[in-house]
Design brief:
Layout (H helix, E strand, L loop, with lengths): L1 H14 L13 E11 L6 E14 L2 E12 L8 E4 L2 E7 L6 E17 L7 E13 L4 E6 L2 E4 L4 E12 L1
Antiparallel strand pairs: 1-2, 1-10, 2-3, 3-4, 3-5, 4-6, 5-6, 6-7, 7-8, 7-9, 8-10, 9-10
């Protein structure tokens, strides 16, 4: 059941394409980067990972994106390690795109899904994200920094994840 609503959101993101007149000069963007995640419900609360995002601009201020990541909580050693997938569907609102450094707000729905390791003690399930980021324009690309707090709603509890992302948008 959980995966079905996430699958519908991902499908709607790929099916919905803006009309050529509303996004004629805007092109889809792909970004990738590194993640550091701090979580509230684990014996091993700090994790490292990677993520990738594809986004489709609707206009200069609004984009919709699909984000996928993998986080590994490995600082307790390989016996205590746990690994999670973090897919999300996002709406991204750029607050001032005329500046060299553009702040943006993002809202997302997704999941915090166990991939392996010692995951039975940690909460997993759908997640809600509300975050803030900054994109710094370079000549042909951009560098971004984001703080994306996520509330993970598990079967019998909820937890807070605090990912800090840094990456490059191509």
């Amino acid at each position: 059941m959980r995966a079905s609503w996430i699958a519908w959101l991902v499908l709607l993101t790929f099916v919905w394409v803006p009309a050529a007149s509303s996004a004629q000069s805007l092109r889809p963007r792909i970004g990738f980067g590194l993640t550091t995640t701090v979580t509230t419900d684990s014996e091993n609360p700090v994790g490292l990972g990677v993520h990738v995002r594809g986004s489709l601009p609707v206009n200069p201020d609004l984009s919709f994106g699909v984000d996928a990541g993998i986080a590994g909580f490995v600082f307790g050693g390989h016996e205590e390690a746990s690994y999670y997938a973090t897919p999300q569907v996002l709406a991204i609102v750029t607050l001032n795109s005329a500046q060299f450094r553009s702040p943006y707000v993002l809202f997302g729905l997704g999941g915090y899904l166990p991939l392996g390791g010692k995951t039975e003690q940690s909460a997993s399930g759908p997640s809600i994200t509300l975050g803030m980021g900054w994109a710094v324009s370079l000549q042909q690309t951009s560098v971004y920094f984001e703080l994306k707090p996520s509330l993970v709603i598990a079967k019998d509890s909820a937890k807070l994840n605090l990912p800090l992302n840094i990456g490059v948008v191509l």
